[in-house]
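Write out the 3D structure for:
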Amino acid sequence: MTAPPRAGDDLLRRWRVLAAADEPDLFEGALLVSLLVDPAEDLEAARRDMEGLVDRVRRSAFGASVDALRRVLFDEEGFRGDRDGYDDPSNSSVARVLARKRGMPITLSIVTVEVGRRAGIAVEGVGLPGHFVVGGPALGGAYLDPFDGGVVGDPEQLARRLATIFGAPVALGDDALHPDSNRDILARVLLNLRRSWEKRHRWEEALSALDFSDALVPPDSDRVKERGLLLLRGGRREEGVTVLERWAAGVGEDDAEAAARLVAAARGGSDAGDAPASPRVFTLDEARGLMPRVQEITAAAVERYGKLAGEDERREVAEAWVKELMALGLEIKGLWLVDFDSGAGYYCWKYPEKELGHFHSYEEGFAGRLPLT
């Protein structure tokens, strides 16, 4: 089977040059991502739009200030979050966001930060689990939310905003409020774009975004696994199995059974329809409603596993556990460790925890969990 074309070689070369810098240019990097979304995008028009906004902020009666930034972007231009088509791929394109004045939190924040920096206002992007805002010295410890039309609030108000996203209060530590680097911001844009294309079963486009991600930040185990699954779902089974076998060979001992089960499922499939199913998206209530069943299945598997001494028998128990929970739409992240995709990150549970009480972003794993309070 011949694979459909992915991102052009020239675009990928341009991206690799940008990614090789000590700190990639945020706006130019975001424009190259815009070409992933639409190869015909007019980047010069986006650059002109940006310069026009910067000039207006500089000439504002408020001077080079957050008030001037808010007045131009949110009061006069009406930049807002796209609540109707939140995860549409176009919302990962800064060029489209500049043209439509609508976007997702991270791309709206990129526009805000870039206009502010060029106008001499000290603002920075702050990535949170499931959300993205603008902070920095010019805000004096407060945070500006471009998705909500430039509303400014303190950390306590920000925590309340996150609670509406997760369905429960989240304990935010000081580390969560640190600014993100340009490289981290671009990596997160690409992750959002991959998720958007995956939901639409546009596997080759998702692989193009993954190529960009791997050039920006060396792939970890999760991204190697992701590549294998995308290849499977795109009908490229032989390539997908090869990548998953490489991934499984590098996982730790605790994850070996789950990895072996996934590889076995991939080998057994004859086409894309036999690949492991795409995970479902859960609200917190839906995830917690499923927890009694997840706990029951896992507790029974742990008990059987503990009574067996043979490696092959233990693997069979672990593989059966993986199969049951994947059928429920969960993602398996390790032995007795599962994630529920919320659409903004993962609700995370590990046996023998009594309840589903943690959340982490797509970028972070178990070590980056935050408690749901």
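The first helix runs from residue 9 to 19.
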